[in-house]
Amino acid sequence: MSDEGNAVLTVRAGGRRVAFPASIVAEVIRTPPLTRVPNGPASLLGVTHLRGMVLPVLSLGQLVHRPEASGSRGCVVVLSQRPALGLAVDAVESLGAGAEDDGATWLDIGDALDGRFAFVPRKGEGQISQVVAPSAAAAPERDLAFLAFVLAGQDYALPLEAVAEVMALPPAIASLPMTDDLLLGVFTLREAVLPVLSLRLLLGLEAHPLSGKQQVVVTKAGEHQLALVVDRITGILRVGPDRVAPAPSLFNRGGGEARIADVLRLPDGRGIAAVLSPGGILSDDRVLPLVAAPLVEEEATMPTPVTPQAHGAARERFVMIRLGTESYGLPIGAVDEVVRLPEVLTRLPKAPPYVRGVMNRHGRVVPVIDQRQRFGVADSGDEAGRPRVVVVTIGRLQAGFAVDAVAGILEAGAEDILPAPAMEAGRAALFDRAVAVQRDGRLILLIDPTALLTLAEADLLRDLVTAPASP
Fold first, then answer.
1. Sequence-ordered alpha helix ranges (H) in 220-330
2. What is the pLDDT of residues 158-198, one digit of tens each?
3. Which CATH superfamily groups domain 315-466?
4. What residue spans of 135-241 are helical by DSSP H?
5. What is the CATH number of domain 144-290?
6. Distances (CA, A) of 427 to 128, 354, 431, 455
7. Cis amide bond preceding 83, omega within 30
8. Opening angle at CA 156, ends 151 and 158, nearest 5
9. Tell me: the pLDDT tens digits for 308-331?
10. What is the DSSP track for 29-47?
């Protein structure tokens, strides 16, 4: 890849082609399941967990002033800021030198995010504003970086330092007569003529006609470069050496140096990827005669996301409440009781819309708050559930929160509890922690009981419970 300080990542988001410095990118991942954050910023699609941290994911389409871009879900570009942040995009188009204007909109991410989100450092306070290569301390040498892609439904990877560029399949590839089927043609890239090779055929996989949907990885091996056609780029991976092992001999059949050097275990148990050896590709008797253009040796490193420390006591228990399709956790110690939602609640005059009324519990007047409305959950019209009221005491105020259902009790150890970043500047953090549920990959946001009500709302409810009820 070209020098990290000058390299540019070009993506497609919200109907636009957007470019920004590759130096602020930690990795590119497939879009994971996202947990919605109630009342979060409009561009916040949700949060997920990524190797021990809670990752907020924003819609880049909305950040580039496309409000109709409700949420691109092709992949997520993870930025190297601290704490980490993901940008959801439709697709990654290219990775390489960005000196010439290719029609993409240049995005200063620092300006786009500055001051808008509590989890984004202000410009000058964090890595988000940097457009130069980070120091070696930000990218430990023990981490290995790979470009991951798919061929014939199988996962493969190339060492990132062997990747010069990634781009869409060029519309004009000149075919050459009387050549091996492996050579699809040639095209010109910055005054260099590159051979275009079918990586499928090189690896003995079933041939596939060019459709315009494939992508090209410009690979460098020593002083040579060549263009390899792949089905689809899936992302940039950074893994520790313990996830990479030498490839068994059965991965390489036929003469010449091994094309597959290693295998790496993909994150989150998704299987393994075969790591190709650029030198092994070049040594193929069919390839070496085709390669002529030199490429200056360059190195590139990607910064590594920071993994936060585990948070919480040894074991904690949470009441799981359901609103719509999402589940949230409330510390069991904050819950007084869970009761059926009364069919009739006593309405209060001049109460805000989110206060459904009051009920009498053990001689006390308890306001009932419509948590669907407070969390902005759309009404599905399905009333077949088992609505409940979760009664919570906050300071001297007791209030009930109407929810769609109580799904049970979740017990979590300290190793599964993560700190949650603040979602919006200037507002109390409603979710202070999160639990990564290992069995299904979900992220459960944990509610801070003291933040369920703002100070103003608490004062309002105190007035309501002392006001006379309507007959």
1. 278-282
2. 988 888 878 888 877 887 665 667 888 888 776 677 888 88
3. CheA-289, Domain 4 (2.40.50.180)
4. 199-202
5. 2.40.50.180
6. 22, 19, 11, 11
7. yes
8. 125
9. 333 434 688 898 899 888 889 999
10. EEPPP-B--TT--TTEEEE
